[in-house]
Amino acid sequence: MQTEQNKTFQTVQYNDPYCTDCSKRQAWIEFMLVDEQNAPVAGISYSLMIYGGETRQGRSGKDGLIRVENLPLTSVILKTDAQELADEMELRPLREGRGPEHSEAKALAALNDHSYRYVVIGELCDRAPEIQKWNYAAFGLPRYHFKSETDFPGIRFSGKDFNRRHMIEICPFRAWSLILNHTRTYDLVNAYNLALMALLSYCNEIMRDPDAEGTDMRPVLDEKNTVSSFFYHACFDLSVPPSFEDGARFYAVTTDVPFRERYRPAIFLDSSQVRDTATLEHKRRMFFVENNTHIIVSWRGTDGKRDLMTDVSYKPVPYSRVENAKAHYGFLDAYECMGRYFKDQLGRIPDAATDKQLFLCGHSLGGAGALLHAADLKNKNPLVYTYGMPRVFTRTAVVAFRDLPHFRHINDADAVTSVPSDTNMDSWLFEAWGWFGIALGTAWTIASAPTLPVQKALPDFGEVYWHHGQPVAFFDARQIGEDRAHPAGKGNSTVHARWRFDSGFKFYLVPGIREDLSDTLKEQQEYLISSVDKNVLGETFPQYTNPALDTVGMSFVAHSMSDQYMRIISNQVIRQINEKNTPEQNRKRTDFISRIDSTDAYPPNVARNNTFLHMESVLGELFRYQHSNNSSKTALTRFEENTREFI
Fold first, then answer.
1. What GO biological process terms are annotated to this protein in UniProt (predicted)?
2. Engineering a disulfide at 28: which of 69, 185, 579, 592 sits with its beta carbon 3.0 to 4.6 angstroms away?
């Protein structure tokens, strides 16, 4: 049996002490090079080095086959041309399932009694290939794809490996990229992936510029849960989608791209690491990262005592970009502090955003930073997702930026989303005695908090703090009813005791979703959309403020990014993939729906809850419509495989 490539192999050297009698050269060996789709890897130059003897050379055939005959029963080492292999394997997509149990090539090898081996390209390369825009001095070689920076030993075969075919499945030379859709319509996968980026911003690391001369990034790759290790290590490790751990492990929803389209550079900025900063300077942190198609900018939330000072510096100050508008003094000054120290680094963002999609995100104080940054970059078409953020702008600025797409997530009674209050919080005390005046003004604002309901009842005057963006509410599901068998008071048969059922699950509500649907989807889901009561939406989600919730009091526990926002959004994603993924939430939901249908349920509450159920159904249909493409389906299947319901 001879193939085209076997006819053209070259003998580079002959010096084989094991074959003094060439009549004993009776062995042969075959290698079938395939990718993860079991497609042949054809036309790749190879060399087969015989131990102590010659080197055979050739190319893999159209079917990916390499067959070499007339071999002594010693040992051989297989290598391929590094550049040819790297360039070719960049073009090959990953299979959907990660791990050998998903390999078609492995199953076929077992069926035909062939040997099977799964390899990364570094195991076959004869040298280090040239990688586009790769800093060898800073990183060496990509660790998952190459086991060594300097050694390229190839793959050795001997003994029983002869007179047999070996299936070699080669891992594509790819990298992970987050699935993000730059759309003005709410996208649940956007919400999850950008929430993960907001959580990632809380990681600490030493600032390093990977492109600066003399930078060595190798040490940070060994650290867990840092911005650099996520983008330069986890996004290169194709054995499993990239993840981040903070109390629980959260996997990103990702697709694979050619390695040249990887994320680079990932820039972490920390004002606390700057030397000679001003007294009482803000300690702000953020990162940004880009690939061929998009840029992600993530601002860290409140983290430390200095940030608390920032949060309570309520003083509304003039906002220079909008005439007569004002912004929260603490948030604005904290945002501008990063520009004072990192002007050049931040200047890279608008430059890159000229031809790339721009996403900004943040939790808590980080949400304030993301919104302020987006306002500065409004002409770059930013898309903003925030989580548990406070109010930043007064009315005039919010109206000026009303066309800036921003989805603002609120977890029921999260206390931080209610500050500063949606009233005019200006005071002459803020103008007196510098920082001392700010402290007095803040103290006065806090002391007068009990009068806020009265202040809100008065006509608006001056610049009132408003919320920006479309609300996305995680609403505790409750049903109220009347116990008609038991009067509330003695001898009074017309007033009945009320009952209240707290279900333990949360509605996931996107009130603006009806207006955002495409005409096609509106036609397909006409019944569901018509079932959404506009009056209920108007009452529950007044414009420019928080939803009208029936939760008594506020909660700082509800503000946690990892324990609350991330888990709620994660549960919603896996539920939309398949309802069977969330059995505990399904049980609570079913129990709750049964209470809605109770004959003694309070009618206005029934109308509201039915509207919310229909809204969730519309969200589900939108999710399936947005992610019906093959890339999203594959990414969500991988996400589902690794993610479990949070209870």
1. lipid metabolic process
2. 69
